[in-house]
Structure formats: structure tokens, C-alpha cells
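Reopening this one. Same input as before:
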Amino acid sequence: MMSRKINKRILLSLLLCNCSGALFAQQVKGVVKAKSDNSPMMGVSVVVKHKTVGASTDFDGKYTLQPVAATDSLVFSYIGYKSQTVAVKGRKEINVSLEEEVTTLEGVTVSVGYRTERKTDLTGAVSVVKVNEMMSTAENNPMKALQGRVAGMQVTDNGGPAGKATIRIRGIGTLNNNDPLYIIDGVPTQGGMHELNSNDIESIQVLRDASAASIYGSRAANGVIVITTKKGRNGVLKVDFDHYTTVSMFHSRMKMLNANEYAQVLWKAAVNRGNDPNQNALGIHYDYTTDANGHSTLNNLYYPREYFDKTGSPMLPSNTDWFKEITRMGVTESYNLSVTNGTDKGNYFLSLGYYNNDGLVKNTDFSRLSARINTDYKLFGDVVTIGENFTVNRTSEVEQPYQITEAAMIAVPFIPVRTQDGKHWGGPVNGLPDRQNPARLVNDNKNNRYNYWRMFGNAFVNIKPIDKLNIRSNFGVDYGNFYKRTLNHSYISGFMEEGKEKTFSQLEQSHWTKWNWANTATYDFELGKSRFETLAGMEMFSQDDINFSVKGTTLALETPEYMWPNLATGGITGGGGATGYKLLSFFGKINYAYDNKYLASATLRHDGSSRFAKENRWGTFPAFNLGWRLSQEAFMENIRNTVSEIKLRFGWGQNGNQEIGNYSIYDIYDPYYGVTGDYIWSGTGIWNTSYDIEGKGSGQLASGFRRSRLGNKDLKWETTTQTNFGLDFGFFNNNLYGSVEYYIKKTKDILVEPPYAGIKGEGATQWVNGAGMENKGWEVSVGYRNETKGGLKYDINANVSTNKNKVTELPESVVNAYGGNGKWDNILGRPYQSYYGYVADGIFKTQEELDQHPIQNGKGIGRIRYRDLNNDGVVNEDDRTWIGTPYPDFIYGLNLNLEYKNFDFTLFLQGVQNVDIINDVKKHTDFWSVVDTYSNKGRRLLDAFDPVTNPDSDIPSVAYTDDNNEGRMSTYYVENGSYLKLRNVQLGYTLPKEVSERIKLSKLRLYVSGQNLFTIKSKSFTGKDPENPNYGYPIPITFTMGLNASF
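Same output, byte for byte:
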């Protein structure tokens, strides 16, 4: 009886507990969004901790859970994002924002060779670019934004508004084209990155070694850059708008002489020579005195009241700052709008962009209008996926006139921009060289514009007939249409004149059609602890180029509306041509991983090129990799929280190169009809191949041919072999991370075109194999990221890389064409493009120094002293030696990212250390007579050596003539081009969510930034910018304001 009572009580207690649980159970709902852009996240797992109650977010990121106790906790998780646990605490609505996972490598995939691979499985030298860091720089060319961010990758900016840049990965590997191969959504190309809208980019991987790039075979010897553009995401409709405005100005400029200083230096040159300075062709009168020791002092100077041009129009002596006359403040505007949406059945990404850069040089500009559509849709469940990635853009540019910055530097300052009556341009007078008026060049160039349409993209179908097997067919197209009109105007500029008969209008048009068809099959499977990933495929590539031009001379009216070739009265000439080549390739790859510890990969590619004769048409390029994830071993288990990742890598591979003319295996013969004429493609027409073989003395002549090139059917593939040793590391949950690489890169059978050899007769130029080159180097990348207790997130990362280059082999016929004295001293064993010349050993300052020095023609006090290296008592060409190399000891970059609450801050430094550059500008800044006597010179000449007034100067004394041949290549012009630049600094602020939502936005970020704000350079460098040391387009300082908005 007692037992029954106890059981009833227990049962009653259990019922009461259940009723209590039911009483406090509730429904919880909410929305899950991505923290990065506040967009809804579909498919997020939401479960009650330690219970079986769960749900997934829907299309709008919404979820509903029931029953949930007030004391429960909810766990939110999604692949690639940090899981988040939230206590319910009686709430009925819980909204969360998930943050992307940055401390784990598991599950992260990268695009490498026709497929994606897990980052933890990579065994080659692959750099994954942080696109968010790249986008913090206001650059229209995404490659420029990578400068200093990837170890082993050197980016050189040309400064122009189009944003063109030169890319080199692991140095110079060949004697011809060294550009990397770009793969954009699976379609190969080798240029035009300034035409790609950076806002469309989702990810970038740089494949630096042959073992990683060998799957791309013949065009991968110089590295591969894999670019994937954005795709649609599951969720609600999302609209993004980005805009920025940039103003740019000169970073620095050469200090040139003004009108009075110019006349002073001219006077100094004359008195140093012993000439009467008043006997000058410019009519400048000098008031000066000479003491008993023969030292002269200038008291005053007087320009003529006026000069006259060819027509007698007066030109009043001026003080023209020619650099100021051709330049302005630059303004850049960028607008980008994108729309994305998706479901589990498919998605799309649409974008429209406009970019316009009004350059620093007047009348130069670059604009780009781009549109993109990326879609993919699933059919029959997940069996078939179809889609396309397609972009079309139109670029337009007015480039600067040829060497306009040099023209502005050397233009004489006392010449006015225009004549006094304004009818003609100012220009040279008698006694001056015939140099063009820079302002006229800029003005007349304003309508010389090119327009370029480019359509680029691919369509694909992916079939999954059985589990783990994927068959993909990808057809890509790259079409370009280039059109340019060049107008030449008549003018009068001083004593220079070009009349109507010299006017012309020239039209140029080119079409490039490239198509690529790749078919691949992948099959991935596991056997116990072994995991296999296999790939097999074939690829076809075709390129056809067509170009033509027409030119009409003598135009009655010189307005752009009228200046067309068909309206010319002086004759019309034209020309054109076409060329093309094809590639056929077969390839395969297998990746193997055992227990996620031991990794191996093998690749084989077989390429055939129409550029080679059938005997050498095919090249085979193998590669293999090994890897060991030491951190996954059992003996590392106890320290895994400290040592998160240690991976040792080894790779070996070969790539090919076929960068020669399309018809280099054939003898080429050209017809040149007539002795004179203006041939667009053939120059002056001096190669006459028409003969009066019938002796008629009149009428049309029979036309023959001349050989212009020797063919070589023995040409074969150039091959680059790379060996790579690598280490990847991560500590403290990968908060401290990085990699170290050492590589040896050897190229043999380099394709080279020796210079013309007269002994072989006319048209003897010929491509041959025979050169060899070697590059060795280190690459180190390291970073640390974490978050303080106060909520400050930080990520600081740096990289440094070295590369040592040397030429190991050259054909006998070409060995002296790459430097040296043409006798016993050549480039072999030295870096390619090394400098060869004399060693300048200061200047002669006393008669005693002159008397003790060996014979040197033209030596004198104040002149450069050159070393007699062979000690034969005479300074001549046999005393030349190797005086510099264009490759730095190392290049480096440092990036800092900070986030605190709604603020973000980025700072990026980039530098080059110990690189020898040729500063040719010194020929204008340090000498009166080395080049362009009577042209303007630099203000450094005011500090030239004088035995009485300036005996400590190391700048040679002002000389009327260059008797000492000081324009010769010597160490006087070789300077240290080291620099450290603040490439970018940016401060951003994101409005709080509640504020953004009140103005109907999901996100609004505002930012300001600056680029190239300061440069630290070597004290020995005398130019304006070591990155662009001579006469190129100036690299500007820029200031930017922008916004990122999401709707």
C-alpha cells in the first residue's frame, strides 16, 4: 500500500514537471544576416543546444523554432562562418549576424587549374589575394592594386590614366614576352587587365611555381593569375552601389631653369670655354666683369625686346613654365551598380560600371563603360548546371603625345606659348634647336582618340551523371575591336612650319578574335583514409588578328568633323594584314591525400602549337608535388591550439613558351611596289621590287618580292623547369600565419631573334632556340590577426621576396647583342639587361689630378674622370665593365587593417630595395652640351663645379661642348632606385544598422583615402621618382572620397 502511494506521488510529480515545461515552452523566430554586408543568409542551421529541435533559415534568412524553453540556447552555424551560440533568456525574437570564419583553413577552397581544391591540400606556390584589401585602393586596374601584396610578384605602374601596368612573377624568365597568363572564369588571356572592372572580382589566386601552373602548359611559364568574378547568392534581391571621386596631383617634378637662370648658365658655358658670351645666337646681352686672375662675374643680363617667328609675328621674351602649361589637376570618377539574387535552382549577378579619369597631362583621359552578366541554373535537380559569365566594355583614351614630359622639360623658358598677336604658336628662334612647342603638341593631340570594344566571357554546362563525377564543357570568347583616328595639323611655331600639305588623317582598325573550348571531367572519391581527386581534359584555342589602315594627306579644313581621309586632296594610301595561330592541348591531374596528412599531386599536359613545324609541334610538360601536414600528426595533438598548421611542400614542374611570330618557321617575302611613297606598313618604300623588265620605259611595272625573314623549321618549345620548396605555418588558431618559399627556375631553348647579319644577305633575321636563363629566390609572407578585449580587430601582414637572375647560355651569333665589349666580356653568367659602361671616378679639380691621370680624350678641370681599369695608360672602350643591374635586392609590402565598432582603417606600404636605375634625365639636368645644346636644363647646373666659387661640387662644370664624351654610359648615370611608398591609407565608417534601415538601406559605408602620399628614397637618387625615373607619365598623389551602399 505504501509502495503504491509513493509511485502515485512520483507519477504526479512527473506530470507536474511536464506541465511546467509546457507552460514555459515558447516559439522563437528571427532573421540571420551576414555581418559583412547585412544580407539575409539562406540555409543557416539553427538548433536548440543539446536538443533535437532545429530548423534552417529560408529565402529571406528567416527561421522559426518551437518548442524552445526560456532557459535554452540557440546555436547558429553555416559553412565558412563562425558558429554563434545565443541564450534565449525568454525572448521570442532573436536576430543574429554571422561573421566569416578567418582562422580555419578547413573547407576553404581556391580555384587552381580547371577546378577548385581545398586550401589545406595545396602543395604548390599559390597566393590567395585578399580582395577586400585590394579594393581599398582606388585603382581601375586590379593588377595595380596587387603591387606589394603578393610575394614574388612585381608590379610597375606607368602612371597614365588608363592604369596600365607591367607584371612580373619571379623575375624575367625569357628574352621575349614575360607577361603572365590570366585565367578569368576559365578563359585565358594575356593582357588588358585595365579593361576589367575590379568591382566584379570575387577572388584572385596567383600561381607562382611550375608545379601549380603546369596544368596550363604552354602559356604558364611566366606564372598564372586566376580571377573568378562574382556570382549570385541565395537570398533576397540585393542591390549594391559604389562610387568614389578622386583628385590627383603631381608627386614631384624636375626643377628646371627659368628664363634668367637659363641665360646665366649659357653665359657660364661661354666664359668657361673662353668665348665672348655676347657673341651668342640668341641676342642675349651680358654685363659682366673679369678680374686679373681671369675669373668672370655676371652683373646683369638683357634679353632682346622681341623675337620674330617665320612670318614676322613678334614673340615677346617670357618666363614660361612649360610643365605647368601642359598639366592640370586630375579628376577621376567611378560608379558601379550591381544586382544579385538567387534560389536553390539558380542565381544571377548583374553589374554596370562607369570609370573616367581626366589625366594630369592636359587633354589626356581614359574612360571605361562596362556591363556584366553572370548566371547559373540547375536542371533536373543537381544533375545539370548551365550558365555563363559575360562582360562587354568600351574603353576610350587620349594618350599623351610622345615623350611630352621630356618636351616640357627641355623647352626653352624665354619662348612664349603664343606670339604676341595670338595667331601662331611660340617656337624656336635662330640659334635654338628645332624643338616643338609642348602646349601645341598637347592641344593638337586632343582629338587623337582610340576606342576599344571588348567582349569577353564564357558559357558552360556541367553534368553530374553519377555521384562524384562532373563533366564540364566551357566555351570562351575574347573579342576586341580597336579603332583610332590620328590627326596632324598645320602650324607655325617660331621658325618651324608645317603647311597644309603636311596635314593628314589616319584611321587604324584592328580586330582580335580568340576562342577557347575546354572540356574536363573530374572524379573524386575516398577509400578509407585515402582521398583521390582526378581531372582529365582537352582544350582548343584559336586566335585570328586582322588590321588595316588608311591615310589621307593634305586637308583643306582642319576641324575634326572634316578631317577624314576621303576628303584629302594629296593622296590616299592604305595597308593591312592578318595573322593567327592555334593550340590543341590534352591534360590530366591527380591529387592524393592520406588521412589529411600526406599529400601528393601529379600533372601532365601535352600542347601542340601551329607556330612550330610538325616535327616539333608538340610539347609535353609534367609536374608533381609532395606535401606533409606535420601539424596533423598524433604527436602534435597536445600543442594543436598553439601549432595550428605546419605543412612542408615540394614541387617540380615544367612549362612551355611559344611566344614567337605566328609564321616564324616560314621564309617571308614582301612586295614593295615603287621606289618612293608613303607606305603605312613599309616605311618609305625604299625597298623597290618593281622592275621595267620589258624595257617599255612607261606604264605599270612588273612587281617582284624581297625576302624579309628567314624561316626556321627546327624551332621548338622553350621550356622552363622550376623546383620549389615551401613551408606553410599557422600558430594560435592560425592567428599567426604565413609561408616561406625557395625556388630555382631554369629556362632552356629560349626563343630568340638575333640581330640582322649582313653576311647572310637581305632578310636574314631568323628566330632560333639557344638561350638559357636562371632565376633563384626566396619569398616570405607573414601575418597576425586578432581581437582585443575592447573589440578592436586587427590584421597586420607583410611580405618580402628576392630574385637573382643570370643568363646561362646564348647562341654564338647573339652573345654580343646583350651587353659587353664585343670581345671577351659578355652577359653570360650575369643578370639579363645588366648595364655595361665606364666607371666615373669623380671630377678633375686640380691640374695635378689631370697630370697624374692616364690619357683620356677631352679631360680637363671640372670634367668627369673615368677609371683606367686595365691599367694600360689609356681610357678607352676596353675599360668598360658591368656597372649595374635593374633587379632589386628585394621587394616588400606591409599592410595594416583595423576595425573598431563601425570604423575601419587600412594602411599599406610598399617598397623596393637596392635597385640600380639609369637616370637619363641627368643628361638634361647636369650638362649643357651632352644632349640638345641650347635646350633647357635642370637647376642642378646652377650648382656646377667652379674652381673659385664652388670647388666642392660633384656636378661637372658647365661646358659649351661635350669634348669629354660625358654622355657615354657610365656609373655617373647609375643611381640607387630604392624607395618606400605609402601606397594607400583609408579610413571608413559604416552607419549603424538602425540608421541605415531608416533611410531604406541595409548598409552604408563612407570612406576617405589617399595614395602615394609620401615617398622615402635614396639620398643618392637625383631624379623625381625612382619608380618612374625618366620621361614617363608622372605617378600622381591622389585623394579619394567614396561610399558603398547596399539596398
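So the earlier flakiness isn't reproducible anymore. For the record, The chain has ten helices and 56 strands.
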